[in-house]
């Protein structure tokens, strides 16, 4: 099973990249789960053609009790991808990071992995805040690999640096490691060079280079991915290429591939004194 977390600054293109990658895995015949871990709760929109999906935290607020089945908090999207959104707290009240932890424990209680038996699980995670809660997707057997999405912009690289440091902090406990950088272009000056320097200084590699293209907006307006709309185009091929390399690595045992068929591990609280 491939378990991958995609981190990056807000607005950098994490959900766009994650949903295109999910679609590419699905078109390769893989069983995919995509879990949006961002209070924006819009990770899976491009897989669901505009269908609304109740975020888990909204469900808990509205009904004041845990859902009893996965159907209440999931939806099937393009390529039969199982879509889940953690959502966020009421603005100004509560903590989104803690919400991620309780959502994951709930998914474990509902036996998500045993029931779905996925080939690929993708976590789409906000990376502006890298505290105990937002690090949940890289702890306790959740994601094993991290992809960091960045452009050549200063703030995107700053967030990427923080995410890399956070992953390194947890790595010695046998948690996730950084698989590489996805350059999602904003067309700033010397963009490739800037991101290459950033990657080299940290011993990382650029695993995909996605152009800035209006086709992403056109697809988003229809609630679809480019992979679905134009599977033979040059942009879709970049996502198929990345998906194929990840599958080949997994098959060759280069990714650790430790399956957890009996579920994820239980997550402790984030340890925040707040
Ligand atoms: P995030 O999930 O990181 O907050 P999104 O994936 O929602 O960011 O992307 C933010 C906006 O940028 C969306 O409107 C999306 O269509 C657009 N976008 C993302 N990547 C590209 C790209 N390579 N070219 C053009 N627009 C893009
Ligand atoms: Fe929330 Fe603090 Fe925990 Fe982060 S460390 S998840 S901000 S309570
Ligand atoms: Mg997003």
From TrEMBL:
Its EC number is 1.18.6.1. The keyword Nucleotide-binding applies. Coiled coil: none annotated. It catalyses: N2 + 8 reduced [2Fe-2S]-[ferredoxin] + 16 ATP + 16 H2O = H2 + 8 oxidized [2Fe-2S]-[ferredoxin] + 2 NH4(+) + 16 ADP + 16 phosphate + 6 H(+). Its cofactor is [4Fe-4S] cluster. One of its GO terms (molecular function) is nitrogenase activity. The keyword Iron-sulfur applies. It comes from the Bacteria. Keywords: 4Fe-4S, ATP-binding, Iron, Iron-sulfur, Metal-binding, Nucleotide-binding, Oxidoreductase. It is an enzyme of class 1 (oxidoreductase). The key enzymatic reactions in nitrogen fixation are catalyzed by the nitrogenase complex, which has 2 components: the iron protein and the molybdenum-iron protein. Belongs to the NifH/BchL/ChlL family. PANTHER family: LIGHT-INDEPENDENT PROTOCHLOROPHYLLIDE REDUCTASE IRON-SULFUR ATP-BINDING PROTEIN (PTHR42864:SF2). Homodimer. This is nitrogenase. It comes from Porcincola intestinalis.
